């Protein structure tokens, strides 16, 4: 992490890069509250790393300068877009990193082919708005409007339209990226294709993207949304409701215009469904008749913008939203062959009824598959093309997450693993778990050896590093 003299050299170097620009760089020597609240802005308050500097460059050339300063001082670098990493990896994950905050990279343009150029610091809420205002266009991405596209589209980028259109990173045509040498290069399928492969799924390990060029779709004209609220005497009674949902989403012929989540919380469960089409088209699929019965129904017909906003509202109320809090998470990824058997569901829902050490917890089963699975496993670094659905479990603690809550959350995954002892599972890299000893294998699976080789070529000194980033091949 460097000694006092190297820290001084790093600070001088970064100040020279900023060349007097206001709000360009801050250090721990700045007032503590200012540095913490205005510059660092940690997301998960359960564990907060302290970077040696936070920078806010205005240009790709300045980012290149920041990277060269860090390399000269043998300090690690991490980019931050929206800053929503569950492990605060945008702050380095561990103490001592240089942060490149992309807040100033908000550029946007649309060409005649309806390919959009989007700055890497743009938040998803603004991506939706700008695409709408420039031709009524859209792309697949998640529901949290505060998430930045810089991280989202380099990890995967799953959301309700993904079954229809693929992941966010599947929309990326090319990128402008600053490398570990401080070079500014283009990457696409025809130019620096190995780097492009790595950036589409493991971006934070390989460079700092300043802008994306993405393909877009016409906005769906009609969106049908149903929200079913279920309240039971105890969580154990919800097992059969989940089993009905799992049976529905495992149908190999399930219409790709359909998306759904099964959300458990302290007071009951919510089944959220989205269909991109008319109500008549939705009824014709037969899906409504196959959904779990007995819930309190809320129905809405939306346009595209209304649908995106409603999804953010519903999921934001249930899960970890845009407000910094202390939380702990667990996740698993399921193939279509790995449906939870009835015995496992029974044990799992008994577990949901146990004392968790907190009343603020959520477990979300999230349907995937569809167009996401059309892309070959070795086409991009994203490794979960064969996954049908994911489970994410969250526990919130005040002022910190207790060990009891962590043990309960770990218990969710343990019960599922015991019920499916031969399932390969894996973990979505957008839901990082800092406690995973084999995180790289869980995130990138069979693509990891190739990623290590690419890392050795483009970043042999491991400049772009966090606790679970891709290491260079030995």
UniProtKB/TrEMBL annotation:
PANTHER family reported for this sequence: BINDING OXIDOREDUCTASE, PUTATIVE (AFU_ORTHOLOGUE AFUA_1G17690)-RELATED (PTHR42973), OXIDASE, PUTATIVE (AFU_ORTHOLOGUE AFUA_6G14340)-RELATED (PTHR42973:SF17)
Gene Ontology terms for molecular function: FAD binding; oxidoreductase activity
Annotated ranges, domain FAD-binding PCMH-type: 47-219
SUPFAM superfamilies: FAD-binding/transporter-associated domain-like (SSF56176)
InterPro entries the UniProt entry points to: BBE (IPR012951), FAD-bd_PCMH (IPR016166), FAD-bd_PCMH-like_sf (IPR036318), FAD-bd_PCMH_sub2 (IPR016169), FAD-linked_Oxidoreductase (IPR050416), Oxid_FAD_bind_N (IPR006094)
UniProt similarity note: Belongs to the oxygen-dependent FAD-linked oxidoreductase family.
Record PROSITE patterns: FAD_PCMH
Domain of life: Eukaryota
Record keyword Flavoprotein present: yes
Protein name per its UniProtKB record: FAD-binding domain-containing protein
UniProt entry keywords in alphabetical sequence: FAD, Flavoprotein, Oxidoreductase
């Amino acid at each position: 992490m460097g000694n006092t003299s190297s820290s001084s050299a790093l600070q001088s170097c970064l100040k020279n890069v900023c060349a007097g620009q206001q709000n360009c760089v801050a250090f721990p020597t700045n007032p503590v509250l200012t540095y913490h609240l205005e510059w660092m802005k940690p997301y998960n308050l359960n564990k907060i790393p302290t970077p040696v500097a936070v920078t806010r460059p205005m240009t790709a050339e300045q980012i290149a300068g920041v990277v060269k300063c860090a390399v000269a001082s043998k300090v690690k670098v991490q980019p931050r877009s929206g800053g929503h990493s569950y492990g605060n990896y945008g702050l380095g994950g561990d103490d001592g990193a240089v942060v490149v905050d992309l807040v100033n990279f908000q550029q946007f343009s649309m060409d005649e082919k309806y390919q959009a150029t989007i700055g890497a610091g743009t938040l998803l809420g603004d991506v939706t708005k700008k695409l709408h205002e420039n031709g009524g266009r859209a792309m697949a991405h998640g529901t949290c409007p505060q998430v930045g596209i810089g991280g989202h589209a380099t990890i995967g980028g799953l959301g309700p339209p993904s079954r229809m259109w693929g992941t966010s990173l599947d929309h990326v045509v090319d990128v402008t990226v600053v490398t570990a040498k401080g070079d500014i290069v283009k990457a696409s399928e025809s130019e620096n294709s190995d780097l492009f492969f790595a950036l589409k799924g493991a971006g934070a390990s390989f460079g700092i993207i300043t802008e994306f060029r993405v393909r877009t779709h016409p906005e769906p004209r009609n969106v049908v949304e149903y929200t079913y609220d279920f309240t039971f005497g105890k969580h154990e009674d919800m097992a059969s409701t989940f089993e009905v949902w799992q049976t529905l989403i495992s149908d190999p012929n399930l219409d790709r215009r359909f998306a759904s989540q099964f959300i458990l919380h302290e007071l009951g469960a919510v089944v959220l469904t989205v269909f991109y089409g008319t109500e008549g088209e939705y009824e014709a699929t037969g899906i409504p008749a196959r959904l779990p019965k007995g819930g309190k129904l809320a129905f809405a017909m939306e346009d595209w913008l209304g649908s995106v906003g409603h999804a953010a509202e519903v999921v934001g109320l249930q899960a970890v939203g845009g407000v910094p809090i202390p939380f702990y998470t667990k996740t698993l990824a399921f193939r279509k062959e790995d449906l939870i058997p009835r015995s496992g569901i029974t044990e799992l829902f008994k577990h949901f009824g146990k004392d968790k050490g907190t009343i603020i917890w959520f477990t979300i089963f999230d349907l995937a598959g569809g167009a996401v699975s059309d892309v070959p496993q070795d086409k991009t670094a994203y490794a979960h093309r064969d996954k049908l659905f994911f489970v994410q479990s969250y526990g919130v603690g005040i002022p910190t997450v207790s060990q009891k809550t962590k043990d309960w959350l770990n218990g969710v995954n343990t019960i599922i693993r015991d019920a499916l002892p031969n399932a390969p599972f894996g973990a979505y890299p957008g839901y990082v778990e800092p406690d995973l000893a084999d995180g790289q294998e869980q995130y990138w699976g069979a693509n990891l050896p190739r990623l290590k080789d690419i890392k050795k070529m483009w970043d042999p000194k491991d400049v772009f590093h966090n606790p679970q980033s891709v290491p260079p091949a030995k």
